[in-house]
Amino acid sequence: METADLSHHISRRFNEDLEQVRGKVLAMGGLVEVLLAKSISALVDGDSSLGKSVSVDDLAVNAMEVAIDEECSRILATRAPAAGDLRLIVAIIKTITDLERIGDEGEKIGNIASRLAVMERPENKYREIKHMGRLVSEMVHDALDAFARMDSQAALQVARRDKMVDEEYESIQRQSITFMMEDPRGIRRALDVMWIVRALERVGDHAKNICEYVIYMVHGKDVRHTRLEDIEQTLGEAKDPRN
Amino acid sequence: MNHTRALWYVASRIAATALGGAIIGWLLGNVWIGVAGAVSLVLGWHLFNLYWLDHWLQDRSNIDPPDTSGLWDDVVSRVVRLHRRKRYHKQRLLEVFRELRRSTAAMPDGVVVLNANWEIVWFNRKAGQLLGLKRRIDQGIRMSNLLRGPSFARYLAEERFDEPLLLEHGSDPAVFLLFQVVPYGVGQRLMLVRDVSRQMALETMRKDFVANASHELRSPLTVVTGYLETLLQDDDLDPGLRAPLNEMHRQAQRMNGIVNDLLDLSRLDAATQEASGEDIDVPALCAVLRKDVQARASHPELKVELRTDAHLLGDYAEVLSAFSNLVDNAVKYTPASGSVRVVWEADADGGARFTVEDTGRGIPPEHLPRLTERFYRVDSGRARDAGGTGLGLAIVKHVLQHHGAALQVHSEPGKGSRFTCVFPPRRVRPARGGDTIGAASRFG
After folding, report:
1. pLDDT digit string (tens) for B97-109?
2. Do A27 and B137 touch (CB under 8 A)?
3. Fold of B107-195
4. What is the pTM assigned to this prediction?
């Protein structure tokens, strides 16, 4: 697919630069995936030291964001890329911002999880959060896969899953409200749970954003703030991704 | 030689044709018309055959080879034979190739072929299943772009491929994959992926069993020890019972030690992350060890040499238990006339090592590899007499693993043993004033 397109440059160094920065973005993504998984299992297993360790990972994520950003500026300045290469660089700059935000949300979840770990755990052991966490983690994973493969169809499918996450968010919110009305002593915990669910919902949004950048990168179409049906239509028109 | 033969053939054919034409022409009245007619007929026949041959070669499979005679027949039959032989060889090669692919595809382990840039060249069905790879799309994509875990990236960067890498599957925490990279050819790599979830589940079950069993043994043991202590404090105790009760108390204490060590071990086993990085003042820790030894009724001479002021970064309780286990062993197996030397020194690479050396009876070499196994005895009598639990060195090994450090054992029967813990630079906080060789005098 498009990946092979990266090898058409006369300058081999340029190809290597592009491949390398892409690899770095995906490595950063891998770090973020681990961070997110850690923060969720810190909550589900009630492991407060694991929850605290997430902030160390977040520092690494932040450092990577700065490094990749610099690398991109360097490529823009020295190589003046055009067309697909330019879109790749632009997409990378935006993707790392979203990845960094996912890292921040993960850190937030980890912090709250380490606070919740010392409190009494609910009967269902945060099953619904575990479920939502898995949905969101898979979204992030598949969005990064779509980025690696430059696969706009897969990206579209991942973006569609954001709706499920939103529904899950609504349902947990309703459930928490019921808990708070039944037992006011549990309001503190329910509020913390709400924060976590909110963070997960935001992670889902960031994953969706990454998918939109993938579509932009492959087709050159900006599909932000567009309804999914409209995106499908646009993609249908632009069957041939070359230009 | 062949050239002249060909020339002769051409010349004779042309001469024969011209002669035949001339004779017919002479009979009909004009020699030259006869010659011209005969030559053009022959030329026409050759052209016709050439055209058919070309036509047939273009679309060999559907039409029969052209039917001709003479030299053309030879040419056609040779081409047919050549073609058949080629097709046969191709078929056989293809068959062998397909057989190979089928066998690798049928392998129960995942196989991925990677090129020098770590790009995917080929993978079998199992690998696709285990790693979620997509046929066609994923060819040419860097492996690390799809397997993004930091530990996998580290594994590739360090290129230590003689050891496999164990990874948790991303989305399903119950699935464990074992990776092994095998370099071959020029920069090519074969990556094997195996699903080891079942082994891991069994391993977890075993660890859980040991932890639970030790925990369950603890409470009855506490009750027994408690009653024994009360009985021993009773002044009206029948003097004949005192000796057996003392022995019972001693054994109960020993059992308590074993249970505690087992619990420590299973805690170390369960730890997935490396130990934390508390600052440990090793010189101060050595002072604690010295005090413990001096509290014993009889002990060999203990020398502590502090060749550096460096601090360790690790878990204090774990490191203390590892070091005291080593010192304890040395003191236990060295007669009171001997000596034990404890050395803390810096390594050239920024790491540090803690060494315990004794002049005891030493360990025969055949036992060295199995020394850190649980309950392993060099000879069954002596450790039990000395009151050991049989778990000390297993704990040392686990603590060191937990800190990314290694244990080196050197021993000569009759002369003594040397146990060295080698800590990597990232676990060592260097001394502020450089190495202070003279520091030994502080405790010496």
Report:
1. 889 888 888 888 8
2. no
3. Beta-Lactamase (3.30.450)
4. 0.66
